[in-house]
Amino acid sequence: MEEAPLRPPPPRVLRIALLVGVLTVAGLGAFLFSRLGEELGEQDAIEAERAAAAEAAGQAAEVRVVRPTAAEAAPVIVLTGNLEPAQSADLAFEVPGRVARVDVALGQLVEEGDVLVALDRSSVGAQSAQSAAAIRVAEASAEMARDRVQMLEPLVSRGTMPERELTTARQQLAIAEAQLSQARAGRRQVAASSADHVLRAPFDGVVTQVPSGVGVAANPGVSLVRIEDLTSLRLRTTVNRRELEALRVGVPVAIEGTDVQGTVATVVRSLDAATRRAPVEVSVPNEGEQLVANAFVRGRVTLGAPRPVLRLPSSCVRPDGTVLLVGEGSRVVVREVSAEIASGGGWDVYDGLSAEDQVVLRPAEVTPGVVIRPELPPPAQANAEPLP
């Protein structure tokens, strides 16, 4: 049996299929064209940004920059503060009066017990005479009372005098002896008052404050004389937690600008809740008085062996411990570094920089994020300190 020949699709179906195909091709073309336009737009934006950066760089101000130089340095802890006398005293009278004698001069060396200043003691002399007279009267009264008791005792024992007479005499003797003790206590009080009219040196030292002259009014508790022992000084300061972990009692401390070496005497291993720093004291010998008391000094504690560092001029590091670098497109960026003050000046950077980085020499004059024209100094001046 013969199969029936296939009949062609109706003309209407052909037209619908053809229309769908055309629409599909047109939609794909439109999508590709749109994506191509976006890519071209992004490329144009990038080119425009680069052109703007190049134009800005051409208009930017020149800024001096430096490259860090290679060096070696040992880790150092810098301790700063005032050199206080290890022993000092502000001396004042405990009684009021007027200065009658000044036995020392400003800057004079004194020994423990030396008289420094004395007050007018005329009133003390009168009180002393009065006290002596009161003692003599009390002694006479006590002697009379004692004689009466001795006289009455045999009479009472024989019955010729009543018992109450002896009892009264003994009471009068007790009163007289009490009055004598009181008079003698008054004499000791006058002696103590006399001692209060004189200031003596409590230890060997140097006079750093004296009254301007005699006749000056002295008020109780108001300092008139100051004594300082300058043969031994003390540097009081604070350290952060990292420095605290490295410090130990007995570690030597070199005082910058001198050949004097101190020693860490006290390390308090407790951080202040507000400042997050711990107190440290350094004992500094000063037998030859090479150092000046109450002067600001810097002490250096060297820890471990030297290691490679990158050195920068002192002006490069900002107060917050960061530096400004020249980044991509000559734009200034901020970089955190780990640095310490170098012994010869400048900064030793242990981490955060490479030898090829360009560091802004004066960061206070530049705003982070701006485009600049970096200006490197000649090689001979690359690591020199900036001129003022």
Overview of the structural elements:
The protein has 388 residues and is α+β, with helices and mostly antiparallel strands. Among the domains are: 62-72 and 306-381, conserved putative lor/sdh protein from methanococcus maripaludis s2 fold (Beta Barrel); 79-83 and 229-302, Efflux pump adaptor protein, beta barrel domain (Elongation Factor Tu (Ef-tu), domain 3, Beta Barrel), CATH 2.40.30.170; 121-196, Orthogonal Bundle (Helix Hairpins), CATH 1.10.287. Helix content is 32%, strand content 31%. The protein has four helices and 21 strands. Strands 3-10-13-12-11-14 form a six-stranded antiparallel β-barrel. A four-stranded antiparallel beta sheet has the order 2-15-19-18, with no helix packed on it. β11 (252-255) and β12 form a beta hairpin.
Note the main attributes of this structure.
alpha+beta; conserved putative lor/sdh protein from methanococcus maripaludis s2 fold; 32% helix
SSE layout:
Elements: H1 11-59, E1 62-66, E2 69-73, E3 76-91, E4 97-102, E5 109-110, E6 115-119, H2 122-158, H3 163-196, E7 198-200, E8 205-209, E9 217-218, E10 225-239, H4 241-246, E11 252-255, E12 261-267, E13 278-285, E14 296-302, E15 307-312, E16 322-326, E17 332-336, E18 338-341, E19 347-351, E20 359-360, E21 373-375
Parallel strand pairs: 1-21
Antiparallel strand pairs: 1-20, 2-15, 3-10, 3-14, 4-6, 4-9, 5-8, 6-7, 8-10, 10-13, 11-12, 11-14, 12-13, 15-19, 16-17, 18-19
Helix pairs in contact: 2-3
